[in-house]
Recover the amino acids of this structure.
């Protein structure tokens, strides 16, 4: 057995690195739980020292570390803290997330190790504070986005409230030239297949009429996700402050067009997101289900009901 194979066995790692992110995630979570708090620099230094004997490139280890920490933050296992010495991470309070399924999710400062992104236990088996899934997730995040953008909070309604508000931001936005039509794709078509803006497919197309559309502008190697308003007087554009708000606007525009943003098959408990899922909906799927594809998850009906409530459904 080679030195790298011996080291891989000690780390419970496939020598080919096929389960690198899962192992990093497990080791980072365990280290944070043991230490209480770890700076990002200390995590990076520990990973490089532990995994270099396996001959992984530093760049691969750093990018995999980013993904592992991103997953731990997405689930709610850890929080990122800003200090004078830079970023650091601590475990969130210990708790069990329940939704009426056969198992519960365990989050935070709970000393149980797992290679899985979300640690799970049989329903009711862990002696922890139980928090219903909808309480853990909080109110629909489009409401927070609405307030952040200057609108008043709305208790009723769905993401259409956000998309309606941002339409006014688009019409009063910066002027935009339509002289390079191939650099711009708009979400103007219908159908379950979302497609891609690069070479427009699915619901994407080039600008061919007036209206207000979620859009993608290609500028060199970057893509700007914006809201575009086109009229006889020209075009104006407004860019949301982050990708998640743009995703919520797409949800709202899709619902306003009378289309669904999700599809659920009860017979095999398969959930398909039909638009880019906002972080909140993705977190609910991550906590409760099993990912089968990029936007496809297997989730129990009880978990699906919570996700459907967050995202909304087309009005009759």
């Amino acid at each position: 057995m080679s030195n790298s194979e011996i080291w891989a066995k000690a780390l419970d790692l496939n020598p080919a690195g096929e389960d690198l992110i899962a192992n990093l995630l497990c080791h980072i979570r365990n280290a944070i739980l043991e230490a209480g708090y770890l700076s990002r620099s200390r995590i990076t230094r520990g990973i490089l020292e532990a995994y270099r004997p396996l001959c992984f490139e530093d760049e691969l280890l750093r990018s995999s570390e980013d993904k592992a920490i991103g997953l731990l933050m997405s689930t709610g296992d850890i929080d990122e803290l800003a200090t004078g010495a830079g970023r650091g991470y601590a475990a969130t309070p210990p708790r069990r997330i329940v939704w009426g399924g056969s198992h519960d999710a365990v989050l935070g400062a709970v000393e149980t190790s797992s290679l899985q992104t979300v640690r799970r236990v049989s329903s009711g088996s862990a002696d922890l504070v139980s928090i219903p899934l909808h309480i853990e997730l909080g109110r629909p995040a489009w409401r927070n986005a609405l307030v952040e953008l200057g609108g008043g909070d709305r208790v009723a309604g769905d993401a259409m409230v956000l998309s309606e508000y941002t339409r006014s931001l688009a019409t009063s936005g910066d002027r935009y030239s339509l002289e390079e039509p191939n650099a711009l794709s708009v979400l103007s078509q219908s159908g379950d297949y979302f497609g891609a803006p690069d070479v427009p497919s699915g619901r994407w197309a080039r600008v061919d009429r007036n209206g207000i559309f979620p859009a993608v502008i290609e500028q060199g190697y970057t893509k700007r996700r914006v809201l575009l308003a086109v009229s006889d007087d020209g075009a104006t554009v407004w860019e949301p402050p982050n990708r998640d708000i743009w995703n919520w606007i797409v949800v709202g525009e899709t619902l306003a067009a009378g289309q669904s943003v999700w599809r659920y098959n009860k017979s095999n408990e398969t959930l398909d997101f039909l638009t880019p899922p906002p972080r909140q909906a993705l977190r609910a799927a991550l906590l409760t289900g099993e990912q089968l594809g990029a936007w496809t998850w297997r989730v129990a009906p009880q978990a699906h009901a919570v996700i459907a409530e967050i995202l909304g459904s087309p009005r009759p």
Observations:
- The chain has ten helices and 17 strands.
- The radius of gyration is 22 Å.
- The longest strand covers residues 222-231.
- The CA atoms of residues 137 and 280 lie 7 Å apart.
